[in-house]
Amino acid sequence: MSSTELRRTALDATHRALGATMTDFAGWDMPLRYGSEREEHVAVRTRAGLFDLSHMGEITVTGPQAAELLNFALVGNIGTVKPGRARYTMICREDGGILDDLIVYRLDDTEAGAPHYMVVANASNAQVVLDALTGRAAGFDAEVRDDREAYALLAVQGPESPGILASLTDADLDGLKYYAGLPGTVAGVPALIARTGYTGEDGFELFVKPEHAVELWQALTGAGEGAGLIPCGLSCRDTLRLEAGMPLYGNELSTALTPFDAGLGRVVKFEKEGDFVGRAALTEAAERAASRPPRVLVGLVAEGRRVPRSGYQVVAGGEVIGEVTSGAPSPTLGKPIAMAYVDPAHAAEGTGGVGVDIRGSHEPYEVVALPFYKRQK
């Protein structure tokens, strides 16, 4: 494959047969939408949607000191994750800047009895995370393995997803908690069934071998037909996660921010034993945030119809008080929405007099608490 050629998932021909609009995303040729972005969004909120997420980066970490390596390399306390559970965490630079946000699954121990973890990185950062983990593994009795080619990843999201998946598996879905995963068989295909969605809805992620991706996609499509399941692309995934107030690396998270700057200092576990990369810088960041609170990530809801975009300035009283990180029309609210980092003095819910500079015009917005949308359980 040439350096300019896009990577394709095992479902590439399926997407094209469905008439998907494809786009370059982090070096992968991915489906942006199959028809209407709004219809796909509404399907996930009210029924179910089927996604190909095979561009995500899976990295396996095993060996007697796998937990110790991950505790050193990441900011979370991975040693306390029990088999079958998952944890949201981050990998930071020595200066505390966020390299990526991650989900770490603790799988069943290896045949040799060693701990077995799967680290899932964002597609755009998978190589960076792999390189960092490999470099930080020096001195640990543990192996870091690039497993990006070993998995296809399908996700079924939405209120009808438990019923759809239950019709294809005898795995205990009722007992599968949020941020957990279990091995099972779905439509005859061996899979790791996880429950760690990114849409604000209930749903499942299915890690399978690439050669099984097409048959599993077809089985899920058939099982979901009566429930209104439709294929969904990356465009509606972005508006779904925005409504749910979930950060996206490159928008709400970056190397310029520490977890404390992003309002996610809770993921940093100083109480764990031993040193970890970034500990000293993050200790300073925590102290700085306590004495001089950083800008706060808030929600903005438009009073008009103009849509804010990443990088637009947030203003109040003629002063710049923040910056938009993500913005889009919200199909659920029926109005444009945005996430933005703003000065603490303007971060309280209901704060008025706030505008977004959209091509020189200060459009009025109301500050609201995140998330914009929370499903009824």
User: What is the global morphology?
Assistant: globular
> Quick one: biggest sheet?
6 strands, mixed
Query: Gyration radius, to the nearest Å?
Result: 21 Å
From N to C, what is the helix and strand string?
EHEEHEEHEEEHEEHEEEHEHHEEEEEE
Total beta-strand segments? 20
Structure description:
There is one protein chain. By secondary structure, the chain is α+β, with helices and mostly antiparallel strands. It has eight helices and 20 strands. The longest helix has 13 residues.
Question: Layout of helices and strands, plus pairs?
Answer:
Elements (H helix, E strand, L loop, with lengths): L6 E2 L3 H6 L3 E5 L2 E6 L3 H10 L2 E4 L4 E6 L3 H8 L12 E7 L5 E10 L8 E6 L4 H11 L6 E4 L5 E6 L3 H6 L14 E6 L2 E6 L8 E6 L4 H12 L5 E2 L2 H10 L35 H13 L4 E7 L10 E4 L2 E12 L4 E8 L11 E5 L2 E8 L9
Parallel strand pairs: 1-3, 4-14
Antiparallel strand pairs: 2-3, 4-10, 5-8, 5-9, 6-7, 7-8, 10-13, 11-12, 12-13, 15-18, 15-20, 16-17, 16-19, 17-18, 19-20
Describe this protein with a few key phrases:
377 residues; 6-stranded mixed sheet; 20% helix; 6-stranded antiparallel β-barrel; alpha+beta
